[in-house]
Write a structure and sequence with these properties.
Length: about 350
């Protein structure tokens, strides 16, 4: 625990705080422990934002950053600060979360390794399945083909889970490659709705509204977002028989929505479902298969293009998931041409 002023001098603190940072009580009393000196440069703006919120609202909210230990070592911490009424001083707590971060890192490494290792045998399974299917088709063995089709569907599920896990570990390390292209959003939505309609007998996927929206981004990845939302809409509305999809333009953004009439998401879970591995587990609620990563991946993809994802829902009254993407502007369109010009100039000199 600590007491500090707005300028960032730590005025008082308990022993645990001093232990985390490696300073002595004498150094604290001499006023040598300063927030800015403890903060690595990349956390400077986060720290300033927290200070601004603290001054405006009286509380910083809880946030994560790193502190510099006296030895120079970085310490990941969780912090929250509150203003002491009518004064320029604040009281706060700092929690050392090094152990949790280390476990997170090990979990990420494990996921990355496991998904890589799983990918090879599953790819080969899929290949041999295809081979068997072709052979049995020649012999006309309908029953065996039926079983193989079911195996194929399960292998596809496994492939999807593995590729989601691989995506997640690449996202963690910033290695996920995105293509940049301009494409017709209506065509993509229509294609995906038609494809998924072929895989469900329980729900009608109704494409209600379209618009002539052109967006910029990775067509496959944005398609992946819509597939995730549609699969969820089907999965979490077992009693319903339709899902509504709409595409609209909203100022300089394209807005896609997927509405279902299923179990819905209670208010307290609505932010959390976009976190990694978060699944709603209300007592009494049926368990649904999944890993709790589809929405996290979708959110990361959409954020990559400066879009937003959110949900509007009430428990037991269905859910509508929305995502936005910036519409193509003339500036974006101009880029490839600029590039051509530059390349032409280089070619001339060569
Ligand atoms: P998964 O479906 O694999 O668990 P997601 O990341 O796609 O993972 O979703 C996270 C959680 O959000 C789900 O476990 C579920 O509790 C909730 N959720 C997602 N979509 C819906 C929906 N359409 N209706 C109700 N709950 C949903």
């Amino acid at each position: 625990m600590f007491i500090s002023d707005f300028a960032g001098t730590f005025l008082d603190a308990n022993d645990a705080f001093l232990d985390i940072l490696g300073y002595t009580r004498e150094e604290l009393q001499a006023g040598t422990i300063q927030r800015d000196a403890l903060t690595p440069p990349e956390f400077y703006s986060l720290s300033q934002n927290a200070l601004k919120t603290l001054q405006e609202t009286g509380a910083s909210g809880t946030y994560e950053k790193e502190y510099l230990h006296k030895s120079g070592k970085r310490i990941p911490v969780l912090i929250a600060v509150t203003r002491i009424e009518q004064t320029d001083t604040c009281i706060g707590f700092v929690l050392d979360i090094s152990e949790r971060k280390e476990l997170d890192k090990r979990k990420d490494e494990f996921i990355s390794m496991a998904s890589h290792e799983l990918k090879t045998p599953v790819t080969s399974l899929k290949g041999f399945l295809g081979l068997l299917q072709r052979r049995l088709a020649i012999h006309g063995d309908e029953q065996a083909l039926h079983y193989l089709a079911r195996m194929d569907a399960q292998v596809n599920r496994l492939t999807k889970l593995i590729s989601d896990l691989l995506d997640i570990s690449k996202m963690q390390t910033g290695q996920l490659v995105y293509r940049e292209e301009r494409f017709d959003l209506d065509a993509l939505v229509q294609e995906i709705v038609e494809n998924l309609q072929g895989t469900t007998q329980t729900h009608h996927l109704l494409l209600e509204r379209q618009t002539r929206a052109e967006v910029f981004g990775d067509r496959d990845r944005i398609g992946q977002v819509l597939i995730n939302l549609l699969n969820n809409a089907i999965k979490y509305s077992p009693q319903a028989d339709r899902v509504l999809v709409r595409v609209a333009k909203d100022q300089n953004k394209a807005l896609v929505s997927v509405q279902d009439f299923g179990i819905g998401v209670a208010k307290e879970h609505q932010h959390k479902i976009f976190e990694r591995f978060y699944q709603v587990t209300d007592p009494g609620e049926k368990t649904y298969p999944g890993l709790g990563i589809g929405l996290y991946i979708s959110c990361e993809i959409v954020k990559r293009y400066n879009g937003q994802v959110w949900v509007e829902s009430k428990k037991d009254e269905g859910a509508t998931f929305y995502f936005t993407l910036p519409l193509c502007s003339m500036d974006i369109q101009a880029k490839p041409f600029e590039m051509d010009e530059i390349l032409a100039k280089i070619a001339k000199h060569v």
